[in-house]
Amino acid sequence: MQGRVLITGGAGFIGSHVADELLRCGYAVRVLDSLNPQVHGPSATRPAYLADDVELVVGDVRNADIVQRALRGVDAVIHLAAVVGVGQSMYQLQQYVDVNAHGTAVLLEAIIERPVNKLVVASSMSIYGEGCYRDVAGRAVDAVDRSREQLARGDWEVRGPDGERLMPTPTLESKRPALASVYALSKYDQERLCLMVGEAYRIPTIPLRFFNVYGPRQALSNPYTGVLAIFAARLLNGNAPTIFEDGEQRRDFVNVADAARACRLALEPRAISAQPINIGSGTAISVRDVGIRMAAVLGKEYIQPEITGTFRVGDIRHCFADISRARAALDYAPQVAFETGLAEFASWLAGESAIDRVAEARAELAARGLTI
């Protein structure tokens, strides 16, 4: 399909890349964004990277009047508006629930009154909690949550009911959600609300469960953004990236260009609706390895990651994507290798500055007893 698409949160990191992708493919694009200072800085003005052809509506997704106006003449909606961050969500509960769940409800009420042809919503890998695991015999097992007592003694691995170490495997969409943070709960609320309303009002709806998205335009001074941006902020200020646990936790890093392409593919008529879809690279990388590679591409190999040996409440050990459904339902395939994407990210960083607020954020979590 083509036509006019509304992107909520579209002036941010992922949203602005989605706007570029849609414009390239002949769509008209309108963006609704509150220009949150935590993301856009204190000036809260239209970001220079937002394409001139994008119509920007400045406003909060919780404001029904603004949302209704933003939906006029719109054929499809890509709902990205959300506050993001596992750690911060554990003490700013009202903010995360209000923006993510209440904001989605306001948007959906407006869509009921002014239906669209397609609704795409950004969900998150965080709803899985721990990813999928197998035991030593190769059998799939439900991961057992790590207790505070286990973490306090520095035993980081996920273990089965008899204490045996479980082996991580690619995470399927069929895995039962295990909500380990307020952020995860709020993203699950967004996903389920959209699917529920889409089914009731016959609006084709696709939740995209994004894994760790990285690339140019990330908010470097936001200490609750993606891990690569946090590492970059540390390194640009001559500080070592700080890593929780032992650094061997594994994640799936997907380039923002691939994430944007997935959003565009979800608008196409052939896209299969009414089911969540993982959007990742399909490759697992340890967080420690990411810190080392980030330092290397920035020419700061002498700054080695600092392994803290501490745990942040709400974090999980391993989670990386099985993208088989994305291939089948969207004809999606990641096109940007991690090495290529990291080099592009480093090139963009050369013209950027960042305020390193990581120590401040860690102190906030520690003061609230949210690190072990």
Class of secondary structure makeup? alpha/beta
Alpha plus pi helix count: 13
- CATH classification class: Alpha Beta
* Shape field: globular
Uncertain segments = none
Total count of domains: 1
Tell me which CATH architecture applies here. Answer: 3-Layer(aba) Sandwich
Mind telling me the C-alpha Rg?
20 Å
Strand content: 15-25%
Strand order of the largest sheet: 3-2-1-4-5-9-14
- Average pLDDT taken over every residue: 94
User: Looking at CATH, which topology would you report?
Assistant: Rossmann fold
Largest sheet: 7 strands, parallel
CATH level-4 homologous superfamily: NAD(P)-binding Rossmann-like Domain
Q: Tell me the distance between the termini.
A: 50 Å
| Quaternary state of the chains | single chain
Total number of β-strand segments?
16
Helix content: 25-40%
Element order: H for helix, E for strand: EHEHEHEHHEEEHEHEEHEEEHEEHEHHH
Helices, strands, pairings?
Layout: E1 4-8, H1 13-24, E2 28-33, H2 37-40, E3 55-58, H3 64-70, E4 76-79, H4 86-89, H5 93-113, E5 118-124, E6 132-134, E7 140-141, H6 148-152, E8 167-169, H7 182-200, E9 205-210, E10 212-214, H8 227-236, E11 242-243, E12 250-251, E13 253-255, H9 256-267, E14 277-279, E15 285-286, H10 287-297, E16 306-307, H11 324-330, H12 338-349, H13 358-367
Parallel strand pairs: 1-2, 1-4, 2-3, 4-5, 5-9, 9-14, 10-13, 11-16
Antiparallel strand pairs: 6-7, 6-8, 12-15
Helix pairs in contact: 1-9, 5-7, 8-10
Tell me about this structure:
This protein has 372 residues and is an alpha/beta fold. The chain has a single domain, classed as NAD(P)-binding Rossmann-like Domain (Rossmann fold). The chain has 13 helices and 16 strands. The chain has a 7-stranded parallel β-sheet with strand order 3-2-1-4-5-9-14, with helices on both faces. Helix 1 links the parallel strand 1 and strand 2 (28-33). The protein is globular, with a radius of gyration of 20 Å. The model has no long low-confidence stretch (mean pLDDT 94).
